[in-house]
Amino acid sequence: MYGVYVEEQKDNGMYVRTSFLPIRMIVGQKEPVSLGVEVRNRGRQTKSYSVSVKVPFAFGFDRSGLMREHRIRIKNVDPTKKKEAKFSIYGKFNITPGFYDFDVIVREHDERFDKITDQQHFPARLRVE
After folding, report:
1. Beta bridge pairs of residue 85
2. What confidence score (pLDDT) does residue 66 get?
């Protein structure tokens, strides 16, 4: 992954790294920016994760900007292994320059995705020029 990284580690063994590629968005840009969320299992058991991203009103996961929350499931991450989830983020037509904060939520599951054993919030910040 290339770009600016934000690394977070909580005391539960969950390690998360977020990055944007390209590292900034240009006003009027029609191509999406890719948000990469890398999750590493530092525990002793195989776990599954679900990664949710909530974007500000100026962005969306589709070209129209109507879809503002998206979730990806990551199955069976072995101990000391990592997996990555990628999100394509589009800017709306009326976006203004500045910094925008995204909320990345990583939920830890044991075997199935019906039970949440842990949930952590991680920040991600995108610059718009």
Report:
1. 37
2. 85
Nearest to 46 by CA among 90, 81, 19, 71: 81
Q: Is 123 exposed, middle or buried (0-12, 13-18, 19+ CB in 10 A)?
A: exposed
**Residues above pLDDT 90, as percent of the chain:** 59
Pairwise CA distance, residues 47 & 31, whole Å: 34
Coil/strand/helix, residue 37: strand
Q: Is the pLDDT at 74 greater than 90, yes or no?
A: yes
pTM for this prediction: 0.85
**How far from the centroid of its chain's Cα atoms is residue 99's Cα?**
17
Question: What is the Cα–Cα distance from 38 to 51, expressed in whole angstroms?
Answer: 10
- Which two tokens mark 115? 């039970």
What's the per-residue H, E or C state across 43-106?
CCCCEEEEEEEECCCCEECCCCCCCCEEEEEEEEECCCCEEEEEEEEEECCCCCCEEEEEEEEE
CATH for the stretch 4-128: 2.60.40.10
Cβ–Cβ under 8 Å, residues 128 and 97:
yes
